[in-house]
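ok trying this again, last paste got cut off
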Amino acid sequence: GWCPLSPAGAQTSQLTLDPPWTPVFLREKVTLTCHGSGAPGPTDWYIDRQLWRWEKSNPTRISSDHTGSHSYQCHSPGTKLSPPVTLSFSNDWLVLQVPTQALLEGDALRLRCRV
């Protein structure tokens, strides 16, 4: 499968995005940072559950020339694979953005409108 092996009981990697909003405009740069155990070694990145073979740096910057959504995950040494974070790219002139982090029932939801 696509899931890397991790030590039993290892903590889960956490993926954060800056800016932490979706959708973003085409060609807008987003920084992905994988937070893990701090163990030395390369970070593995996944796009739509497929290993992103050429990218190992942490943090890393992404952008897109094409509209659509993709799921991103990371695996830091000594940790389990992060939960997926979905990021959408839009070519609209006006977008209503929502936070990329998971929310629980009862959490306040901040929205952002961008032109």
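PB: full thing came through this time. The domain at 14-102 is CATH 2.60.40.10 (Immunoglobulin-like).
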